Amino acid sequence: MSLISPNPNLRRAFTLIELLVVIAIIAILVALLLPAVQQAREAARRSSCKNNLKQLGLAMHNYHDVHKQFPPAAINLTQNPAPENCRHADWGATWILMALPFIEQGALYDQYNFEQVARNGNATSGNNQVTRRRLEAILCPSHPTNSSLLTQDFTGFEKGNYGVNLGSGYNLERDHFNDSNRRGPFSVVGMYGAKFRDMTDGTSNCILISEIVTGIGGGDDKGAWGWCSGPTFNGSSGCGSNRILTPNTTLRTDCSHYASNNNSDNNFNRRNNPDAAANGGVASRSYHTGGVQSTLGDGTVRFISENIDQTVWTNLLAIQDGNVLGEF
User: Fold this and answer.
1) Which ranges of 127-276 would DSSP assign to H, the alpha helix?
2) Which residues pair with 211 in a beta bridge?
3) pLDDT digits (tens, 9 = 90+) for 224-249
């Protein structure tokens, strides 16, 4: 009797259990890998955001070299002193418009007429053709895309994610601007940009620029870089009561002149009370986990925890309050 050898060309198939085990292993590996991929992507976005802030800080330093001071946060073309109201029709250029030549946007700068108000022209002419442009240099890659322009009262103000520091007080309170314990390196109502010599606390103890979240919808001015109240932030809000606006706060409500009062949108408490804007404020906020990135007066960029002590934060916003902070 002869033995029949098995056919060497026949392959043994996977059993169902083996197939399920392989699928389970792959699923576990994917589950382990995805957070790492997401963290790597966020690290890259955060690095890109840091570079944006570094370039803006260099732009401010270069502007200072040329003009011997930082640009004002915004200028009003008809009133001096400026009105404590960002709904005034005669507001002109903002700090970003004045800094365009220093962020490689000289051609765009040349299109803007600084003798005309910001509310001038349309999509193809006048100042509006400039202010409705999206500038990658002022967009944080971690911030969700916001396609809405500021359209209340006038159409055509695109938005960005970086604002200059108006100090630790209210954003348009003249008394707070005149208070050395509250004054920041920039001001709307003071039409002011500091000189280095004004920063008596030391440039490494003062914030120049930080991240902000943009307003949702056409009636919200936060981040509108061509409008006076858009590319700014500050340290206090008087909406309801005097509150310190620490980074990424969800306990305090932003309060600016154009706001939607959208009570259904609780993300970062972006709902506003525009009727209290005279004593208002906009917080520094970002979509980075744990805090915001900020450019200091010496040009360095620091990541600042959202858990920072509110006194330390307000000291960082004031340029003449006498507090030298060291590490923070």
Assistant:
1) 128-131, 174-177
2) 162
3) 999 999 999 999 987 656 689 999 98
